[in-house]
Amino acid sequence: MRDTPQSSHGRIQEYLDELSNLPLTKSQFDWYNIDVAAILQNSEILGHEINDADGSSLLFLDKSALLCCPKTSMMHHFPKNLLHCFVDDYRRRNSQEDGILLKAELFSIYPSQEQLCWERCCRSELEVPSLQSAVAKWLGWLNT
């Protein structure tokens, strides 16, 4: 079932509201609320993730993903059919990479300036279900 314009607008507003909780500069916040919001006006957002550390975000659209990088004011568009998902489980291995128990990557293979590498990691068993849930959403989106 497709979103109505009202529900699609609601998802854009939900996304922008979530971004407002980040420690972004005024210019970064304005970039999201003016430039990114204008581009998304006629798009259906199926989901999103936000990197709290750097303010970047990944938007899941019907046939593609849009990576928004506020530090460079750049948006990168990736067709869904060129994206891949890897999950590395370090829990049963003797050596763990920097204390990481589980790492998931959603990535593309493009020229170096146009690569997507959206990564989520967990260092605690308590974080594993959240990461597994995120990967389940990624795979659900990739397979539709």
Q: Output the helix-strand order.
A: HHEEEEEEEH
Find the CATH topology: PH-domain like
User: Cα distance, first to last residue?
Assistant: 13 Å
Number of domains: 1
The count of DSSP E runs of length 2 or more, i.e. the number of strands, is 7
Rg calculated over all Cα atoms:
16 Å
- CATH level 1 class label: Mainly Beta
The overall pLDDT, averaged over residues, is 88
Structural class: alpha+beta
Helical content (DSSP H or I, runs of 4+): 25-40%
> What sort of overall outline do the alpha carbons produce when their principal axes are compared?
globular
Strand content: 25-35%
Q: Could you say what the CATH architecture is? A: Roll
Strand order of the main beta sheet, please?
1-2-3-4
Low-confidence stretches: 1-6
Question: What's the total helix number?
Answer: 3
Q: Give the biggest beta sheet.
A: 4 strands, antiparallel
Q: What's the short story on this structure?
A:
By secondary structure, the protein is α+β, with helices and mostly antiparallel strands. The chain has one domain: Roll (PH-domain like), CATH 2.30.29. The protein has three helices and seven strands; from the N terminus they run ααβββββββα.
